[in-house]
Specification:
70% of the residues lie in helices and 0% in strands. The longest helix has 22 residues.
Length: 516
Amino acid sequence: MTLDEQAEDTNSVTVDPRLRPFDLPVLVAETAARDGWQAAKSVIESHWDAFASAAPKHLLAALKALPGEAFVNMPSLSVAANYLQHVVIDGEPRRFFHDGRLTPNPDREASANLDTLILLTGKAAGDRTAGRVEEGRRTVLEAKAVLDRIKPAERGEFVGSLPHLRFQWGRTFDAANAPDAIGEYEEAYDLARLTGQPVIARRAAGHIAWVHADRGRLNEADLWLARAQAEPATNGRYDVILLLTSALLRNDRQDPTAQIELGRALGLPLGEQWAAALWVSAMLAHGGPGVSSVDARLESDLERHPETQLAGADARYIKAARARLARMRPRLRNDVTLIPTGTALDPLLEASLAYFEGRFSDALASSEEARNLTAAPRVEAPALLVASASHHQLGHYPTAADSFRAANTIIQYQRMFSAYAVVPARTLTALAEQAGEPIYGTAPTTAHDRALPKLTNRERQILGLLASGLSVQQIAAELFISPNTVSSAMRTLYRKLGVNSCAAAVQWAKQTEITF
């Protein structure tokens, strides 16, 4: 048998990662001793996709079975070993360089190009997991420029590596809130399908589904989630993003099984999805115990990931989670300054806050700013609803009806019923009646409807008198108590309502239609 025939015979051997994973290191060592390190590396290459998810410890052992000259001639092997080391030790790739794909390359020039791509991709992933998302994004652009300089004929030598590389490029763009993420994920998915790599195809499709769901493009998210689920399931570690996407979609459609999907996700190592998981958890939290539980998790996670060091998508998720928790229970975090994210989330949250504080003109300006920054349905629909409610309060009834119809069109098309919760349910009903439009899904409830604070009789009396326009001195005379007692009760009242002024307290009472 010739050397080529021996190598071909070796490559035809397939080790089952679930039944006999320990056979792979033995096969690699035997192949290296008989045919050299390149043939042994080819064995690892042919098993990578299956072993990386099902048996990473044995895949790492197979890498270590390669002779030292392999790592000298191909530095990217060290990158792959680094990644697997973190997976094996931590159970999740908190810090890694590249979940590498090792492809045999007889052409040394092509091999050098592949090494360059892997090392640049590794640097970008390391920057991403360390929170340096903008630096990681620039490194990916450098890697893409290297790929563009490689001739198409030469790319064929390492086509098996490209799905993994492009998936990591998509992850880095995604973490940086860059618009190119979906394009890279789609390239990774198509190439993975072409080269028979179902693990990376499932992961890429899952992340595409998540990006669409995150932006509120729920119909596209449905399609990509189905494509991801059509690929063979892995050991679960890579399925966190699929479960979070499913939970988010079900919550948007008011499906109570959303909590089940979230629970399944939280039972797996979250890895880089920790902030996204907090946001989805906050979206699904209802009632005091649920909100307190998510708030405690947020505090715990921020001890490991300081908020001042967050950037990109993680910063956006944490800010959205904070805002959601504060709306559910106003006493939570009313002294915390929300860090700007540089995205449409900032003016959208400002619009909502301004509306509930009775600053309707400010709410209109901020909602328009949010819509100018993005047309994503998850921003546009609630921004239009806040604008509609603000116009309604200002007496601009025809404009309020137009804004509601525009929002309702988006909500109906995407079936994103969760968007209704941005305004109080009674206000929503009034807007729908005025616009002659239905409210889709089940009757919505909002944070203010679900979590009205418990006020004492005295606090209700004071709030009612404030709404009547009386001063502190007049309220004191009316209730036969001292002005200091009224002022103290007002401070407690403001804290319960999550406001900081008399006008905001009165407006809050009007919006929630609280009885005095």
